[in-house]
Write a structure and sequence with these properties.
The protein is an all-alpha fold. Helices cover 57% and strands 0% of the residues.
């Protein structure tokens, strides 16, 4: 039996497939995250929909990546699955991913120091850094 994940890895060698996949990556990631949250909460699509006062067909469309959603809906999913919604912007991956690997290896103190040193990242409130909490991005992939 061939797993879809194995086929996907094979197909990524095709530049046309890879470009199409990368163009839709955010939709795939949102759908995968919704599936993972629902599965971790041991809920069916119908049960999740009921907790959200929504229809099961909405959950099915979101999990299939067939419908864009709102942050409000994602928050409702988080509340129903007893999870927390986390949205972040990550550096673009390069072919060798060295830039992202550097970020992954940084400590929270190094991330904070780099943010303080970046003139584009300076808040106008001088007390900001005293009260700021630096959170290192979670790079774990959502598994199904």
């Amino acid at each position: 039996m061939t797993l879809i994940s194995d086929l996907h890895q094979q197909w990524l060698n095709d530049p046309e497939y890879k470009a199409a996949y990368e163009a839709q990556r955010p939709e795939f990631e949102v759908a995968s995250a919704i599936i993972a949250a629902r599965s971790s909460a041991n809920l069916t699509q119908k049960e999740l929909a009921e907790l959200m006062s929504a229809k099961q067909s909405l959950i099915a469309r979101l999990e299939a990546g067939e419908q864009n959603t709102t942050i409000k809906t994602l928050n409702r999913i988080a509340q129903a699955t007893n999870t927390r919604l986390h949205i972040s912007f990550l550096p673009q991956q390069t072919e060798d991913s060295t830039d992202w690997q550097k970020v992954e290896e940084m400590t929270e103190e190094e991330i904070e120091a780099n943010a303080k040193a970046d003139p584009d990242c300076q808040p106008t409130d001088d007390d900001f850094w005293d009260d700021a909490t630096v959170v290192k991005p979670n790079t774990d992939k959502v598994s199904q």
